[in-house]
Amino acid sequence: MTDTATLRKDFETEAIPHMSALYTFAVRLTRDSDDAADLVQETFLKAFRFFDKFERGTNCKAWLFRILKNSYINKFRQTANAPDTVKYGDIEEFYETIRDSSVATSDLEVQLFDQTLDDEVSTAINSLPIEFRTVLVLCDIEDFTYAEIADYIDCPIGTVRSRLHRARKILAGQLASYAVDRGYLEAGGTP
Amino acid sequence: MNNAPQQPELISAYLDGDTLDASESALVKDMLANDPVMKREAELIQAVRMNLRAKRTQLSMQIPVDVERAIRLQLGEEVVRASEGEQRPTVYQRLLALLSRPLYAVPSALLLAVITTGVVMMVNRSGQSATSGSQAAFVPFEITSAAYANFQSVVNGKLELSLTTSDTSDLKRFFKKSGVSFDVFFPQIAADLKGGIVSTHGDKQYAHLVYGAGSHTVYLLEVDEPSIESGQATIADNVAQGVEKDRWHWEERDEIGTLFVWKSNTIMCSAVSDLRTQDFSALFSLETL
Question: Does the beta-carbon distance from B67 to A40 stay under 8 Å?
Fold first, then answer.
């Protein structure tokens, strides 16, 4: 078997299974299916070209996500119409306003959140600023460890903890507002 | 109740069972046991966590069939291209085969001796002229060795930027004004451009770029083809073969860094970073290559 044939076989086993996960993440990142498709295409082509440099036994999915992130940065860093214009700092104030708000009991929350539609959750995730959206999706959807997320965003673990916690808190606020809109919860948190 | 400062951000990590040490876990347990606000916050976070995890499948998308097909098609073309590269003998291999013929054996041995002598003289000459550069003391001008050495000098602070800017237009003007005779190539790279350096070897000026990628450094040396053809710069055989055969060459040297060499039109680019190969390669966009 030639080197290329071996490489292709390994790539098929290690990388290809993550195609949909990368596409899902790319859509969350860009919020545009065409941009997401371009990103995933570039990611896989680049990954294949450099696959002989991938250290076997390490996390291929995390490696692919890093390539995708870098492709995303390259694609959008110099464009004025970057897909996310909400800055990390802008959300701080909002976070503080919801931090101390009263919330219903845990059982009720679980029930209310269970009532949320997939589309509502998806919309709520997409509305998060990119710094929060990234850690939330990597942790809760893609099952990355904190260390893998820290590596991905190139920040200390403490930053991952903080952003993830805030992302979940903001998401909870969003889901609660959907529940209010649909009459499951009265404004102010009273069922 | 414990008077330690509350750290609600630890709650998520506690619920995820990730990264907390014993004292942090104890702190969270104390918060949950004694602080009703923190307890409520934990319940809220747990509800969101559970909800997201329960909806993982629904929140995940299948890649569209046409996108998957396009990717597989591209990969197929890559495989064909790579296979052709494997089968096509390199210039070096063709030359070796030619010189191995009995008819050429003795003349080629003589030729090799002449070439070797020439290369040694050229490297020595380059070494002397390198130190005459106004910017820094560069090592003898074998491209990859120079790239490694300059990278270390940049990291150690011994080689400073001639111009600090992230503006490629400013750098282009600066390189031109400083006598760099070729169009400097700025790769698409997921790193922050820090600035550039100009060095002088003999009567020729060369461009160097420095980038920052998080806590890592990326250094890039650019040498134009005429400099290699004229012998002002040399490149190791294995590197030249790698670039010709695979379009690029990668190598890691312990305690120094990772070298990435590729050719962009008529510019030989040698980049060195303290990143491992798989992370270093991930920085570059396809347009670069």
Answer: yes
Residues 104-123 of B with CB under 8 A from A: none
| b/e code B138-172 from CB counts within 10 Å (16+ = b) | bbbbbbbbbbbbbbbbbbeeebeebbeeeeeeebb
Q: What is the dihedral of CA B98, B104, B109, B113, to 10 degrees?
A: -80
Smallest CA–CA distance, residue A158 to chain B, in Å, is: 9
Tens of pLDDT along chain B (289 residues) come to 445 556 888 899 999 987 788 898 899 889 889 988 888 888 888 888 988 988 888 888 888 988 888 888 888 888 777 766 655 555 445 544 544 454 454 455 454 444 433 333 333 333 333 333 334 444 447 888 888 888 988 998 888 898 999 999 999 999 999 999 999 999 888 889 999 999 887 778 899 999 998 888 999 999 998 888 887 788 888 888 888 887 888 888 877 789 999 988 889 999 999 988 888 888 887 666 6
Facing residue for A109 by CB, picked from B44, B189, B278: B44
Q: Taking CB atoms and an 8 Å cutoff, what residues of chain B touch A153?
A: none
CA distance B176 to B257: 30
Token pair recorded at residue A37: 């498709």
Write phi, then psi, for B260 (nearest 5 degrees): -130, 120
Contact present, A131 and A155 (Cβ < 8 Å):
no
**Is A161 close to B188, i.e. CB distance below 8 A?**
no
Q: Which among A27, A42, A162 has CB closest to B286?
A: A42
Question: How does strand B192-201 pair with strand B204-213?
Answer: antiparallel
